[in-house]
Amino acid sequence: MAALKPLLAKPWIWSFLGALSVWLATIAFTGGYGAGGMVTAALSLAVFTVIVGIGQMFVITLGPGNVDLSLPANIGLASAVAMKVMDGNDAMIVVGLLAALATGAAIGAANYLLIWALRIPPIIATLSASFIIQSIDISYGRGLQIKPPPGFADFANWQVLGIPVLAILTVLFTIGAAIALQRMVYGRSVLAIGQNIRAAWLAGVNVGRIRFLTYTLSGALGGIDGALLAGYFRGANVDIGNEYLLASIAVVVIGGTSVAGGKANVPGVWGAALFLVLLLTMLNTFGVSAGVRLLLTGLIIVGVITAAGGQKALR
């Protein structure tokens, strides 16, 4: 038991324990039926939350008040842009992905420029931006019937030995994000700003540039997520990113990142994303109604955050 104490002390471990618990509860209810398929489906769906969750994690790590509420609108617009650029043509897949990436990055950059130019809190700036983006998306993507190129749709749903290829690539991406956070000047600057913005500035950190890059990164990840979602679900729509507003924040907090800033946990984003997907699967399997499902989801999330020491971080 003593050997487990150092592991249990890590905030992100609780998200994985939560995911394991709901998976075991579900397969116990089904008598073990579909256990492997449940894991594959969870990995497939968790990928999209992890991608935007990493971007949100970097933003939240900048310190109190930093959050990107434009992600759902960003995802919706980028998915429409990607599908229109690709136009069902496999030869345009790379161009479409770059277009989605550029769209998201432009939105992220615009978010920070609003914060900087108008001197308004990020929560207000990004929420205001989301309404503008939604208006653009409605006029640009409403009624869009373009399907993704066959090769792109196949890639988004491709599995090797039951493991989604997108999940493998996202794991590699998160490893890179962890290295950037802990080993690169940019990542250390983000942590320093979150711990004490004035001290970081006095130490020579270009606070404005780092914040600009971080919001741009979050936007770019939202953009690429929109393109991948359109490929996975074989089409784009205005509401495709709606569920990723609260989900992107929840996976950051449940995963062990401090909402006070200055402390991030990349592995926990994966554990939290799997937890949320498996939790929804469990409640659906139990036949829980939509209202009760939302209530139980909230209560369980609060429980996991409390177990991980989240209440201390929120004080």
Automatic annotation (TrEMBL):
Keyword RNA-binding in record: no
Keyword Transit peptide: no
Location within or outside the cell: Cell membrane
One Pfam family cited in the UniProt record for this chain: BPD_transp_2
Segments crossing the lipid bilayer: 12-35, 42-62, 91-115, 122-140, 160-181, 212-232, 244-262, 269-288, 294-314
One cellular component (GO) term of this entry: plasma membrane
One annotated GO molecular function: transmembrane transporter activity
Record's protein name: Ribose transport system permease protein
Native source species: Mesorhizobium sangaii
Lineage: Bacteria, Pseudomonadati, Pseudomonadota, Alphaproteobacteria, Hyphomicrobiales
